[in-house]
Specification:
7 strands, five-stranded antiparallel beta sheet, about 30% strand, alpha+beta, about 25% helix, Peptide Deformylase, about 180 residues, two-stranded antiparallel sheet
């Protein structure tokens, strides 16, 4: 397992639409292992492969609290097939947008179709934090960032700050807040 660098906005690769996974092989298993190592180190509760520069439809997640045993989840080619009309609001953060948090309104529940590491199909009904996290990560593999769900003014301010830091060659520090539940992915 290797810890990989997480792409930070305004890196254009974060806007790529990821390609479907066609098979589970040694390279994919290594990618998933590296994604978990990277996600836990950050720390975060979700990570999309594109966030480490791999444009494949792979998502890792672990919503276990600090005092609970890990509950690693892998979603290959995840797709939202149903969304609730009811919404919920959650303060989201992103490992690709360190130290920035904003309230985002999303459907309160979703149904997600995906493949597991044995390439077997599943459907999952999710609500609460799991639903939020799945939507956040599926957005990533579709080239969408959580800041796309906030006001145009706030989004412009965030992009300006990170673009200015990138031009100066200054990498924004990773989030000082070490609580993984604040860093969706």
């Amino acid at each position: 397992m290797a810890i990989r660098d997480i792409l930070i906005i305004p890196d254009k690769r974060l806007r790529l639409i990821s390609e479907p996974v066609k098979a589970v092989d040694a390279a994919l298993r290594t990618l998933v292992d590296d994604m978990f190592a990277t996600m836990y180190e950050a720390p975060g509760i979700g990570l999309a492969a594109i966030q480490i520069g791999v444009a494949q439809r792979v998502v890792t997640m672990d919503l276990a609290k600090k005092d609970e045993p890990p509950e690693p989840l892998v979603f290959l080619n995840p797709e939202i097939v149903w969304s609730a009309d009811d919404t919920s609001t959650y303060e989201e953060g992103c490992l690709s947008i360190p130290e920035y948090y904003e309230e985002v309104e999303r459907p309160a529940a979703v149904k997600v179709k995906y493949l597991d590491m044995d390439f077997k199909p599943h459907e999952l009904d999710a609500e609460g934090l799991l639903a939020t996290c799945l939507q956040h990560e599926i957005d990533h593999i579709n080239g969408v960032l959580f800041i796309d769900h906030i006001s145009k003014l706030k989004r412009a301010m965030v992009m300006k700050k990170f673009t200015k830091a990138a031009k100066k060659g200054v990498s924004p520090a990773l989030a000082k807040d070490k609580e993984p539940s604040h860093h969706i992915g």
